[in-house]
Design goal:
The chain contains 10 helices and 10 strands. The strands form 2 sheets. Strands 4-1-5-10-9-6-7-8 form an 8-stranded parallel β-sheet, sandwiched between helices. α1 packs across α10 and α9 packs parallel to α10. The chain is α/β, with parallel strands linked by helices. The structure holds N-[3-({4-[(3-aminopropyl)amino]butyl}amino)propyl]acetamide and zinc ion.
Length: about 350
Amino acid sequence: MKTVFSPLHSRRAVKTELDGGILIAPHEKPSRAETILARVKAQALGEVLEPEEFGLDPVKRVHSEDYVAFLESCWADWIAADKPGEAIPAVWCGRGMRARVPKDIDGRLGYYSFAAETSISDGTWEAARASANVALTAQKLVAGGERAAFALCRPPGHHAHADLFGGYCFFNNAAIVAQAFRDQGAEQVAILDVDFHHGNGTQAIFYDRSDVLTISLHGDPDLVFPHFLGFEDETGEGEGEGFNLNLVYPPGTPYAIWSQGLETACERIAGFRPDALVVALGVDTFEDDPISFFKLRSEDYLSLGRRLGALGLPTVFTMEGGYDVEAIGVNAVNVMQGFDA
Ligand code: SP5
Ligand code: ZN
């Protein structure tokens, strides 16, 4: 399988993550992508390509014009306002308040976000753009006849809504890929999100559509991020009713249980008969992940890959979460090797 990777991911190198009332060193850090790339090469998974430039049009098929403009100017606006630290939202449109776009950068940071752990600094825009180009290059490979491709995206994407950043995500790479398949003539696309966290952005983007089936397996949002979406009674709305599926699991869930949800998801996908599959691949389901509570082991990622490969669909993998950097390369590449086997 070919891998798409951009060295520009390293421009996303914030120093802060708000956690537990203090600013810690971020979990979502450059070594994550470098460790996965090293494993791709060590295992000779396949060719590694740099992304092509697709411009902002395919990004704006999923994200609003004003949100994209906000991200582009956010850091410059923050600096112009003479702020001493990194850009962190600290005020939101709470219930009963007015959802209008403020002029001030503090107001706009709140308007365009849903969480405060995701700081913005110099280079975030460039890295997020490169990450979308990585995803779109993988999509082009698969649309051009490759059975599958690995988009080694960083920053990740699945938490980003049409006009909200958060959860370390800015552009929803999986959604951008699915929409690109549709725009190129695919009738139906499925997105399967196996990251530990609910793919809230992906769900929201396609919630009222029946052409893109969205499925996410994740930790119970009553207990973990993103807290305000991802429950099992969210099944889609309007045209999209019946085309969103959430499978929620409690702390301590091992592969033997989690894989039952994977089976349910795969059967639903097979019945949907999509023209292409996008896998939002997080490996923060790993037993030693520092911010998660599932108990998958490294060998389980081979099984996951084999099950996905058995669907027999043209498949794009977009890299999402996974924060045990020591194991992230083995775990992510195990999925690809299981798929290819
Ligand atoms: C892409 C992805 O996996 N995003 C995850 C975003 C999670 N953000 C909230 C993190 C809260 C971490 N709390 C850590 C407590 C550790 N004891
Ligand atoms: Zn995650």
